[in-house]
Design a protein that fits this description.
5 strands, Rossmann fold, Arc Repressor Mutant, subunit A, 11 helices, alpha/beta, five-stranded parallel beta sheet
Length: about 220
Amino acid sequence: MTRVLLADDQAMVRSGLRMILELADVDVVGEAADGAEAVALAETLRPDVVLMDVRMPGTDGIEATRQIVTAELPCRVLILTTFDLDQHVYDALTAGAAGFLLKDASAAQLVGAVERTAAGETPMAPQVLGRLIDRFLQRQPAGQPEPDRLASLSSREREVLCLIAIGLTNPEIADRLVVSLATVKTHVRSILSKLDARDRVQAVLIAHRHGIVAD
């Protein structure tokens, strides 16, 4: 059973998230009202996923994410975000967030994102992914010469990377390429290793930065 820590300064939001997750047999092991409490509880409870709001009093979600990642705790952080937080999304990525979930997501999308985060994937709403890439490319020009690590990818791995970069999940990639899910997972692990990327988000940004994503 996936174990989740909720971090949001609004008690009603936490209550709603808890209800949705527990109905889907997700174990909510604790709740935090600010970033400092989230870090402390993550250290003691060791959840699989921390569902982290960005705007909280005192230590915000971005700094809390940074502290959790720096401490190398065995949990991954799934950020709750809205469209008006583009800068926060970018900052959360650099802090080590594992994924981004829109606050207006459906119950099914919430549960799916939590489960995918726990499984090591990087869930991200396509809208957020597109805006994140735009901001990243504004800071770091695309079309730069490919480094050796990109050149080391096989043709199939480059194809998988392009599909990851447009927001497809592992099952969706398996369906698109007519291969098994296990095969896709093997390709993804190889891609992350060859690119020296922490997660799928970093791999996506590398792909867009160096212009290898098909139009």
